[in-house]
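Agenda item 2: flavin-adenine dinucleotide complex prediction
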Amino acid sequence: MKLSELYGKGRVVFSLEVFPPNKRCPVETVYEAVEKLAELKPDYFSVTYGAGGGSTAGTSTCEIASYIKSKCGTDAMAHLTCINNTAADIDTALELFKAHGIDNILALRGDINPDIQPKKDFPHASDLTSYILSKGDFDVAGACYPETHVDADSPVDDILNLKKKTDSGASHLITQLFFDNGCFYDFREKATLAGINVPISAGIMPVTNKKQIERMVTVCGASLPPKFVKILQRYESNPEALRDAGIAYAIDQIVDLISNDVDGIHLYTMNNPYVAYKIHDAISKLL
Ligand code: FAD
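Presented output:
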């Protein structure tokens, strides 16, 4: 099914993000995690894509997405990045997705790696979006940034560029993680004023350890509200308390977002069913 059709039906769309196997999370662990997560009955899963690119583009993403669809009976959206891929690489990935019945794609540019010369076929996610739509009956989603993408010249430019993405056919959007709901509400208002009228799911990352927070702040520049900083300071040397406080903070964020008519909640699960279950238990009746 086209996942954009889930939105606008008077309820909050609940999605879970997982990543394919890597050195720290072997393939059996990923399958085990998705099977457990699927019991929460999310509306769909999204499966991330390693930014390296090349002719095997999307293979492990496709494997997990197709396992989720065929074995867990849940819809799945495959992420696909373009900055290190040629049009031929993208064609290969799309053929693979088609062959496995994956017709929902999150079209992304990917981060620019200073050590890799970017390919020239798709400079922006909007270029990839229109290309995918020209290649078959796909439903294409896009990423957006409540606190502005790090490469953007200004917040206004970033919103105008996002409008190019929806004009290219992105049918719904998922935000970068944020810890300050006020940033999301400001962004949503500006997006609407710019004529961006597609549903926007809020990306929520339950932060469960200090290293993870430091990484997130460095990689995506998420601002930390004073309430959040106090939690970190109080529990930084007590991992279990920090995990529980991180879960409670995410629940608080989600309750507020739902009360403010968010279209969807997209949980960055980090392949951790324990955390997702705690959050789901607290919010399932609100969705
Ligand atoms: P774009 O939309 O192309 O934007 C990138 C920059 O270019 C922005 O500053 C924007 O303002 C500017 N821009 C956009 N269009 C134009 C235009 N037409 N003209 C001029 N400037 C323009 N990365 C991965 O490697 N794998 C993943 O699986 C993955 N999943 C993600 C999921 C979500 C929900 C999010 C929010 C991010 C994800 N990322 C992933 C990270 C993402 O690849 C990076 O944030 C990347 O730097 C930007 O990707 P984008 O698709 O938003 O790029």
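Discussion summary: The chain has a mean pLDDT of 95.
Owner for follow-up: CH.
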